[in-house]
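Reminder to self: tokens first, then the designed residues, so the page reads top to bottom the way the pipeline ran.
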């Protein structure tokens, strides 16, 4: 991953003790250019040799690699982590090196994109069929719902020219061949 601020390199590392991937960071002055990575699949990278990783662990719970997004034109990024035991998600928003955390009890969250200063993410309830699409500023302000439960991370296809694109599903939850385009709110 690219460094999102001028002083740290952010990356995913393997936590041998917790047996999961965690988001870590190192000061750029400590980054060793000799680290070699091999690709196990297109989204996962492991150290080629076992070595001591002295990076600072940022995440406390499980982080999926698709739960990390950034805005390439600014110094802001977001990641989501999941505490399965307590059924809680944490949405971590970083802007200019400052972190804001939003706790979502009973919900799982999936960041989708950052468009024009808004972080778009979906939430799904763990014990019901509810959820929706939400937007929040990277500083934690302006939280609002912008779409219903039909707009979720499973139907999200990507962003085209500031439009979030979702595969449209019929009432049975089956793709019907059409799409939903949602302009930034």
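Designed residues (185 positions):
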């Amino acid at each position: 991953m690219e460094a999102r601020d001028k002083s740290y390199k952010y990356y995913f590392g393997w936590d041998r003790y917790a047996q999961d991937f965690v988001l870590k960071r190192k000061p750029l002055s400590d980054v060793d250019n000799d680290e070699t990575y091999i690709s196990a699949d297109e989204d996962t990278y492991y150290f080629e040799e076992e070595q001591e990783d002295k990076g600072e662990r940022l995440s406390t719970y499980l982080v999926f690699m698709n739960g990390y997004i950034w805005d390439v034109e600014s110094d802001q990024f977001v990641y989501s982590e999941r505490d399965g035991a307590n059924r809680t998600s944490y949405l971590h928003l970083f802007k200019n090196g400052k972190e804001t955390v939003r706790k979502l009890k009973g919900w799982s969250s999936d960041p989708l994109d950052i468009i024009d200063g808004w972080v778009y993410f979906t939430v799904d309830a763990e014990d019901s069929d509810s959820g929706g699409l939400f937007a929040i500023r990277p500083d934690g302000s302006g939280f609002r719902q912008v779409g219903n439960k039909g707009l979720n991370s499973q139907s999200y296809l990507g962003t085209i020219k500031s439009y979030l694109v979702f595969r449209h599903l019929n009432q049975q939850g089956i793709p019907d061949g059409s799409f939903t385009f949602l302009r930034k709110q």
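Residues 34-50 have pLDDT under 50 and may be disordered.
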